[in-house]
Amino acid sequence: MDDLFGSPEQVNEIIQTLWALVLTYTPKLVLAILTLVIGLWLINKVVSITQKKLDSSVDSTLQKFIGSLVSVGLKGLLLISVASMVGIATTSFIAVLGAAGLAIGLALQGSLSNFAGGVIILIFKPFKVGDLIEGGGHLGVVKEIQIFNTILTTVDNRRVIIPNAVLSNDSLININIEPTRRVDFVFGIGYGDDLKKAKDILNRIAENDSRVLKDPARTVVLSELADSSVNFTVRLWVNTPDYWSVYFDTHETVKLAFDAEGISIPFPQQDVHMHQVA
Fold first, then answer.
1. Which domains does the chain have, with CATH numbers?
2. With CB atoms counted within 10 Å of each terminal CB, which end of the chain scores lower, N or C?
3. For 208-217, what is each residue's pLDDT tens digit?
Protein backbone atom coordinates (compact mmCIF):
# COMPACT_ATOMS: atom_id res chain seq x y z
CA MET A 1 0.00 0.00 0.00
CA ASP A 2 2.85 2.28 0.88
CA ASP A 3 4.48 1.43 -2.45
CA LEU A 4 1.31 2.34 -4.30
CA PHE A 5 0.55 5.73 -2.68
CA GLY A 6 3.89 6.50 -1.11
CA SER A 7 4.60 7.12 2.51
CA PRO A 8 1.92 8.50 4.87
CA GLU A 9 3.73 11.82 4.85
CA GLN A 10 3.55 12.00 1.04
CA VAL A 11 -0.14 11.04 1.03
CA ASN A 12 -0.87 13.71 3.60
CA GLU A 13 1.04 16.26 1.51
CA ILE A 14 -0.97 15.37 -1.60
CA ILE A 15 -4.25 15.68 0.29
CA GLN A 16 -3.25 19.05 1.67
CA THR A 17 -2.28 20.25 -1.80
CA LEU A 18 -5.59 19.11 -3.28
CA TRP A 19 -7.50 20.73 -0.46
CA ALA A 20 -5.61 23.97 -0.98
CA LEU A 21 -6.48 23.90 -4.68
CA VAL A 22 -10.14 23.27 -3.86
CA LEU A 23 -10.18 26.16 -1.40
CA THR A 24 -8.39 28.40 -3.89
CA TYR A 25 -10.33 27.67 -7.08
CA THR A 26 -13.82 26.75 -5.84
CA PRO A 27 -14.83 30.37 -5.04
CA LYS A 28 -13.37 31.50 -8.35
CA LEU A 29 -15.19 28.73 -10.23
CA VAL A 30 -18.50 29.46 -8.51
CA LEU A 31 -18.10 33.19 -9.18
CA ALA A 32 -17.20 32.49 -12.81
CA ILE A 33 -20.29 30.29 -13.28
CA LEU A 34 -22.52 32.94 -11.70
CA THR A 35 -20.93 35.59 -13.91
CA LEU A 36 -21.47 33.43 -17.00
CA VAL A 37 -25.15 32.77 -16.21
CA ILE A 38 -25.96 36.36 -15.28
CA GLY A 39 -23.91 37.66 -18.22
CA LEU A 40 -25.75 35.50 -20.75
CA TRP A 41 -29.08 36.65 -19.30
CA LEU A 42 -28.03 40.29 -19.54
CA ILE A 43 -26.75 39.82 -23.11
CA ASN A 44 -30.10 38.37 -24.20
CA LYS A 45 -31.85 41.35 -22.63
CA VAL A 46 -29.50 43.83 -24.35
CA VAL A 47 -30.00 42.14 -27.75
CA SER A 48 -33.77 42.11 -27.30
CA ILE A 49 -33.86 45.80 -26.34
CA THR A 50 -31.55 46.69 -29.24
CA GLN A 51 -33.78 44.97 -31.79
CA LYS A 52 -36.90 46.61 -30.35
CA LYS A 53 -35.27 50.03 -30.63
CA LEU A 54 -34.42 49.32 -34.28
CA ASP A 55 -37.89 48.05 -35.23
CA SER A 56 -39.22 51.36 -36.52
CA SER A 57 -36.08 52.78 -38.12
CA VAL A 58 -34.07 49.90 -39.62
CA ASP A 59 -34.77 47.24 -42.21
CA SER A 60 -35.69 43.80 -40.79
CA THR A 61 -32.64 42.19 -42.41
CA LEU A 62 -30.35 44.66 -40.70
CA GLN A 63 -32.20 44.23 -37.39
CA LYS A 64 -31.36 40.52 -37.29
CA PHE A 65 -27.80 41.14 -38.37
CA ILE A 66 -27.14 43.84 -35.76
CA GLY A 67 -28.73 41.63 -33.09
CA SER A 68 -26.46 38.73 -34.03
CA LEU A 69 -23.39 40.99 -34.17
CA VAL A 70 -24.09 42.45 -30.71
CA SER A 71 -24.78 38.99 -29.29
CA VAL A 72 -21.57 37.44 -30.63
CA GLY A 73 -19.43 40.39 -29.58
CA LEU A 74 -20.77 40.53 -26.01
CA LYS A 75 -20.59 36.76 -25.57
CA GLY A 76 -16.97 36.78 -26.72
CA LEU A 77 -16.09 39.46 -24.16
CA LEU A 78 -17.98 37.53 -21.47
CA LEU A 79 -16.09 34.29 -22.16
CA ILE A 80 -12.75 36.08 -22.01
CA SER A 81 -13.75 37.69 -18.69
CA VAL A 82 -14.88 34.35 -17.23
CA ALA A 83 -11.65 32.66 -18.31
CA SER A 84 -9.65 35.43 -16.67
CA MET A 85 -11.62 35.02 -13.42
CA VAL A 86 -10.83 31.30 -13.29
CA GLY A 87 -7.15 32.06 -13.73
CA ILE A 88 -6.63 31.23 -17.40
CA ALA A 89 -4.11 33.53 -19.05
CA THR A 90 -6.03 35.39 -21.76
CA THR A 91 -3.27 37.59 -23.14
CA SER A 92 -1.94 34.96 -25.53
CA PHE A 93 -5.47 33.90 -26.40
CA ILE A 94 -6.40 37.46 -27.36
CA ALA A 95 -3.20 37.82 -29.40
CA VAL A 96 -3.99 34.62 -31.32
CA LEU A 97 -7.55 35.82 -31.97
CA GLY A 98 -6.21 39.17 -33.21
CA ALA A 99 -3.75 37.51 -35.59
CA ALA A 100 -6.42 35.13 -36.85
CA GLY A 101 -8.84 38.03 -37.36
CA LEU A 102 -6.21 39.95 -39.34
CA ALA A 103 -5.48 36.94 -41.56
CA ILE A 104 -9.15 36.28 -42.16
CA GLY A 105 -9.75 39.96 -42.91
CA LEU A 106 -6.99 40.04 -45.53
CA ALA A 107 -8.25 36.83 -47.12
CA LEU A 108 -11.85 38.04 -47.25
CA GLN A 109 -11.32 41.72 -47.94
CA GLY A 110 -13.58 41.60 -51.02
CA SER A 111 -16.38 39.96 -49.07
CA LEU A 112 -15.87 42.39 -46.20
CA SER A 113 -16.20 45.30 -48.64
CA ASN A 114 -19.49 43.86 -49.86
CA PHE A 115 -20.58 43.34 -46.26
CA ALA A 116 -19.79 46.95 -45.38
CA GLY A 117 -21.61 48.09 -48.52
CA GLY A 118 -24.67 46.05 -47.50
CA VAL A 119 -24.71 47.67 -44.06
CA ILE A 120 -24.46 51.14 -45.63
CA ILE A 121 -27.32 50.38 -48.03
CA LEU A 122 -29.54 49.01 -45.27
CA ILE A 123 -28.85 51.99 -42.98
CA PHE A 124 -29.01 54.91 -45.44
CA LYS A 125 -31.53 53.30 -47.83
CA PRO A 126 -30.55 54.83 -51.21
CA PHE A 127 -33.09 52.35 -52.61
CA LYS A 128 -35.54 49.78 -51.32
CA VAL A 129 -37.16 46.60 -52.55
CA GLY A 130 -39.42 47.44 -55.52
CA ASP A 131 -37.42 50.47 -56.73
CA LEU A 132 -36.24 50.66 -60.34
CA ILE A 133 -32.53 51.49 -60.19
CA GLU A 134 -29.59 51.78 -62.55
CA GLY A 135 -26.25 50.81 -61.06
CA GLY A 136 -23.30 48.54 -61.64
CA GLY A 137 -24.00 48.70 -65.37
CA HIS A 138 -27.50 47.23 -65.03
CA LEU A 139 -31.09 48.50 -64.99
CA GLY A 140 -33.68 46.58 -63.01
CA VAL A 141 -36.17 46.34 -60.17
CA VAL A 142 -34.75 45.57 -56.72
CA LYS A 143 -36.05 42.18 -55.59
CA GLU A 144 -33.88 41.54 -52.54
CA ILE A 145 -31.21 43.34 -50.51
CA GLN A 146 -28.83 40.89 -48.87
CA ILE A 147 -25.83 41.54 -46.66
CA PHE A 148 -23.32 40.84 -49.46
CA ASN A 149 -25.34 41.28 -52.68
CA THR A 150 -28.37 43.02 -54.13
CA ILE A 151 -30.61 41.07 -56.51
CA LEU A 152 -32.26 42.86 -59.45
CA THR A 153 -34.76 41.71 -62.05
CA THR A 154 -34.15 43.42 -65.38
CA VAL A 155 -36.95 44.77 -67.58
CA ASP A 156 -36.65 41.66 -69.78
CA ASN A 157 -36.97 39.42 -66.69
CA ARG A 158 -33.36 38.39 -66.13
CA ARG A 159 -31.90 38.10 -62.63
CA VAL A 160 -28.78 40.13 -61.88
CA ILE A 161 -26.75 39.78 -58.67
CA ILE A 162 -24.65 42.88 -57.95
CA PRO A 163 -22.06 43.06 -55.12
CA ASN A 164 -23.06 45.68 -52.56
CA ALA A 165 -19.59 47.26 -52.68
CA VAL A 166 -20.30 48.30 -56.27
CA LEU A 167 -23.66 49.88 -55.43
CA SER A 168 -22.40 51.67 -52.31
CA ASN A 169 -19.19 53.07 -53.83
CA ASP A 170 -20.29 53.98 -57.36
CA SER A 171 -22.91 56.31 -58.81
CA LEU A 172 -26.47 55.03 -58.64
CA ILE A 173 -29.72 56.19 -60.24
CA ASN A 174 -32.98 55.52 -58.39
CA ILE A 175 -35.43 56.02 -61.22
CA ASN A 176 -38.80 55.82 -59.52
CA ILE A 177 -38.12 57.10 -56.01
CA GLU A 178 -39.72 60.47 -56.85
CA PRO A 179 -43.52 60.63 -57.34
CA THR A 180 -43.27 62.53 -60.65
CA ARG A 181 -40.97 62.47 -63.67
CA ARG A 182 -40.45 64.63 -66.75
CA VAL A 183 -40.84 63.06 -70.17
CA ASP A 184 -38.69 64.73 -72.85
CA PHE A 185 -39.40 64.60 -76.59
CA VAL A 186 -37.87 66.11 -79.70
CA PHE A 187 -40.13 66.33 -82.78
CA GLY A 188 -38.81 67.60 -86.12
CA ILE A 189 -40.84 69.13 -88.94
CA GLY A 190 -39.84 70.30 -92.42
CA TYR A 191 -38.61 73.81 -93.12
CA GLY A 192 -41.60 74.37 -95.37
CA ASP A 193 -44.22 73.37 -92.78
CA ASP A 194 -46.37 75.72 -90.70
CA LEU A 195 -44.53 76.26 -87.39
CA LYS A 196 -47.54 77.68 -85.53
CA LYS A 197 -49.78 74.85 -86.68
CA ALA A 198 -47.27 72.22 -85.57
CA LYS A 199 -46.86 73.89 -82.18
CA ASP A 200 -50.64 74.05 -81.71
CA ILE A 201 -50.91 70.33 -82.51
CA LEU A 202 -48.26 69.46 -79.89
CA ASN A 203 -49.98 71.61 -77.27
CA ARG A 204 -53.37 70.09 -78.07
CA ILE A 205 -52.03 66.54 -77.74
CA ALA A 206 -50.51 67.35 -74.34
CA GLU A 207 -53.68 69.12 -73.20
CA ASN A 208 -55.93 66.20 -74.13
CA ASP A 209 -53.82 63.59 -72.29
CA SER A 210 -55.22 63.23 -68.76
CA ARG A 211 -51.98 61.66 -67.57
CA VAL A 212 -50.02 64.87 -68.22
CA LEU A 213 -49.87 67.01 -65.08
CA LYS A 214 -50.88 70.67 -65.11
CA ASP A 215 -48.29 71.53 -62.46
CA PRO A 216 -45.44 71.75 -63.28
CA ALA A 217 -46.57 73.21 -66.57
CA ARG A 218 -45.62 71.59 -69.85
CA THR A 219 -43.02 73.08 -72.19
CA VAL A 220 -43.42 73.20 -75.98
CA VAL A 221 -40.74 75.31 -77.65
CA LEU A 222 -38.85 75.53 -80.94
CA SER A 223 -35.39 74.43 -79.84
CA GLU A 224 -33.23 73.95 -82.93
CA LEU A 225 -32.89 74.77 -86.61
CA ALA A 226 -31.18 71.53 -87.60
CA ASP A 227 -29.64 70.48 -90.92
CA SER A 228 -32.80 68.95 -92.34
CA SER A 229 -35.54 69.77 -89.80
CA VAL A 230 -36.97 72.36 -87.46
CA ASN A 231 -37.01 70.73 -84.03
CA PHE A 232 -39.53 71.24 -81.23
CA THR A 233 -38.66 70.23 -77.67
CA VAL A 234 -41.63 69.00 -75.64
CA ARG A 235 -41.36 68.41 -71.90
CA LEU A 236 -44.28 66.86 -70.03
CA TRP A 237 -44.58 66.09 -66.31
CA VAL A 238 -46.33 62.87 -65.35
CA ASN A 239 -46.73 60.56 -62.37
CA THR A 240 -43.80 58.15 -62.27
CA PRO A 241 -45.87 55.00 -63.05
CA ASP A 242 -47.21 56.71 -66.22
CA TYR A 243 -43.77 57.56 -67.64
CA TRP A 244 -43.37 54.85 -70.27
CA SER A 245 -47.01 54.73 -71.36
CA VAL A 246 -46.99 58.49 -71.97
CA TYR A 247 -43.63 58.25 -73.75
CA PHE A 248 -44.78 55.60 -76.22
CA ASP A 249 -48.35 56.87 -76.70
CA THR A 250 -47.25 60.46 -77.36
CA HIS A 251 -44.88 59.41 -80.13
CA GLU A 252 -47.65 57.50 -81.87
CA THR A 253 -50.24 60.27 -81.38
CA VAL A 254 -47.91 62.98 -82.74
CA LYS A 255 -47.08 60.94 -85.83
CA LEU A 256 -50.75 60.32 -86.60
CA ALA A 257 -51.70 63.95 -85.95
CA PHE A 258 -48.89 65.32 -88.14
CA ASP A 259 -49.90 62.96 -90.97
CA ALA A 260 -53.55 64.02 -90.67
CA GLU A 261 -52.67 67.74 -90.69
CA GLY A 262 -50.13 67.54 -93.50
CA ILE A 263 -47.08 68.23 -91.31
CA SER A 264 -44.02 66.40 -92.59
CA ILE A 265 -41.47 64.65 -90.40
CA PRO A 266 -38.21 64.84 -92.35
CA PHE A 267 -35.52 62.20 -92.31
CA PRO A 268 -31.82 62.64 -93.11
CA GLN A 269 -31.22 62.85 -96.86
CA GLN A 270 -28.76 64.33 -99.33
CA ASP A 271 -29.32 65.95 -102.69
CA VAL A 272 -26.67 65.01 -105.27
CA HIS A 273 -26.19 67.39 -108.22
CA MET A 274 -24.27 66.10 -111.25
CA HIS A 275 -22.66 68.63 -113.58
CA GLN A 276 -21.65 67.59 -117.08
CA VAL A 277 -18.36 69.06 -118.19
CA ALA A 278 -18.23 69.97 -121.91
1. 2-107 (1.10.287.1260), 127-174 (2.30.30.60), 180-261 (3.30.70.100)
2. C
3. 999 999 999 9
